[in-house]
Structure formats: C-alpha cells, structure tokens
Amino acid sequence: MALALVLPSLLALRPCVPLDVRAPTHYAARSDDIMLAKFSPAYETTVRYKAADWAQNVRTLPRSMVLRRIASPLLFNFGLTLLTCIVHTALGPTLPSLLPLPHTLLGSALGLLLVFRTNAAYDRFWEARKQWDRVTSECRGLASLSCTFMTPRQAVPLLTLTAAFPVVLKNYLRGGGAKEQERDARRLRALLAPAEVNALTAVVNQPQYVLARMRMLAQASRTAGVSEKEREMLLKSCATLGECVSTCERIYNTPIPLAYSRHTSRFLVLYVSTLPLALVRSLGFGTLPAMLTVCWALFGILEIGNLVEEPFTAGIGGPTAKDGRPLQQPLLPLTEVCRTIRRDVRAIAQYSQLAVEYGVPTISRSPKTIVLPESFRELREFVKVGNGTLNAQNATARANASRPAGSV
Predict the structure, then answer these.
(1) In this structure, are residues 349 and 140 in contact, taking their beta carbons and an 8 Å threshold?
(2) What CA–CA distance (Å, rounded) separates 305 from 311?
(3) How confident is the model over 328-377, as pLDDT tens digits?
(4) C-alpha torsion 304→309→315→320, nearest 10
(5) How far apart are the first and last CA of the chain?
(6) Can you give the pTM of this predicted structure?
(7) CA–CA distance, 96 with 88 (Å, rounded to integer)
C-alpha cells in the first residue's frame, strides 16, 4: 500500500514596517519595498521540497517531530518484539506462531482506515486555509472600497478595524503562547484607539465585536457622503467576513468523530502487536528492524492525521535551529497572513496620495471631440494638452476627413 501525503509548505516573511493607517502620509519607496513589490508579495521565502532533498530528510529523521510524538508506541513495540525474539530463540519450535495470512488480509482494511482518516483531516486543513484566503481577499476589498468611497482620512476608523480583524480572529482560534499573545496585544494597541482596545477586551467573542463595529462604521459613512448602494457593498464585505468566522468556528468545534479515531488506533495497536508472532519464525532477530520500520510508517501516518486535523492549533517541525533542535512552527501561517493584510491595508490607504504626487493620468470631464487620435503618442498628448483638446488645425482637419462627401 502506497500512501502519499503532501503537507503544505510553511511560509516565512521578514518583518515589515509596522502598519499605521491613522495618518496616511507619503510612502517613500525603499529598496526592500521594491523587492516586496515583486510577484508573490505575501511571503518573501517559501519552503519547498523536491526529490533532491532525500538525503537531508533522512539525515534529519532523528530530530523529526513526528518521530518524537510516536516514540511511546515505537518503544513499546520494540520491547514486545525483542521479548518475542528472545522467547523464540529459547523455546524454538515450541513457541506458538501465527500464520501471515490474517495480517495480510487485515492490512488492506487498516490501510483504508488510515487513508480515510488522513484525507478527512486534510479536508479540514484545506477548508481552514480557504477560509483565511477569503479573509485576506475581503479585507483587501473592504479597504479598497473604503478608500474609494471616502478619503483615506475619513476611512481611518474602518481601515484600522480591517487591519486588526485578522489578528483578533487568529487569537480567537489559536491563542498561542504568552509571548505571542503579548506581541499581538501590542499590535492591537498600536492599531486601535485605547477606548476601542478596552471595549474589545471586555467581550468574549472578539471577532463578532469587530464585525459589529465595522458594520456600524459602514452605516455611519453616510456622513462622509457615501451613498446607500455603496454602504451596501461595505456591509456585504462585512457579512462575508462573518461567514468566515462561522466556518472557522465549525472546523474548530467539530473534530473528527472520536469513535472513528479510537477504532483506528485500537486496530493499529492490535495489528502491530501481534505482527511479530507472524514474522519471528521466518526472520528471527531480523524482526526487530522490520517492526521498527512498520511501526514508524503506520503510527507516523496516524499521527500526521492527528496533527492536520487541528489546523489552527497544531504545529509541525520546521527548520532546525543553530543548536540542532527542531523548531515548532504552526501548521497554518496565520501570523504571516495577518502581517500581509496589515501591510496591504496600509498600502491601499496610501495609493491615492501616491497617485497625486506622481501625477498619474486620471479621468476628467472633457469637451466633446469629433475624432480621437489614432496613435498612443497622440493620445497621450490629447489627454495632456488642454484636458483633451487638440489644436484647432488638427481638429478641423480630422472633422473634415470624417465628413461624408457633399455634406455641408
């Protein structure tokens, strides 16, 4: 039985400039900002694996986090297999043994259980990642609509809540250690007004509070001249973010049925515990490495399913530190996603000022013209000179050329 499980790459990002959209100012381009402006701006580096990494993967096997998590069943089955080999050597043919046929038949059923268990866990992981993709898209869209319907300074309260929403949602779903919580708390205090932070800490379901505040601000945007249709678009984005929160809550609060997981675990333990009796007569002490390999493969697949089942809280082993110890990294890079959203909201708030300072072309009300230029060079001059007016001679000549023969 061959089982392929591809875990998503962990994404890393260098720290970017802190978000401050309360006072949008001119954005001075730097060399590192130009580098971030290339394709795939969300993450600077991505950890990808290829066939050439097989030597590195084998060399780092003793530091594998999955190996450490399945150390208990490995040690138990190693001791049980060693005892079976010793008793077989001492008693010889008098030791009862099992035929390999039952394990051969049950191996297919065990493989199906492990495959279905892992696929169900991976579906939960992928659904969680898609929901955070929707969060990223809607936060960008909401910030863009806010700056389109209002000036950036008018949209500051809504922009700050948009940038803070992913951080609040991440803390609600994952929490994290004390150090990470303190860092996120500092980030929220830097983004939001003190009164907003105090109100946020007074509620239990913080994402819903942030969404309620965003809806209130969207409705209150009428004072800035936002029309009813435009307010409806803002409220629609808030509703989509609310659906993402509900879906993430469903994933978090509804694990894979316990009976399914327990039956798979019990079946696997009985299978590998009796397997030495079927192998010792033909392999002798060679049963020890065979059982270690079988237990590592089967229990490893089961443990990977347990890890992927909890996409918000589980962590996987990442690159090793300088001292050789494996680093624990979250399964979903929510911190990097939140940093990306903050950076994009800040940039969207600065686009209008950036366009003004660079003098980019814009659309304006122009006098009616009969004929437009044919080349882009003339079209640029057409827009530049007199808000779309050509010199009188060109305009007259083109008008005469377009007139039907014999017309007055």
Answers:
(1) no
(2) 11
(3) 567 888 888 999 999 999 999 999 888 878 888 877 766 555 566 677 77
(4) 20
(5) 87
(6) 0.74
(7) 9
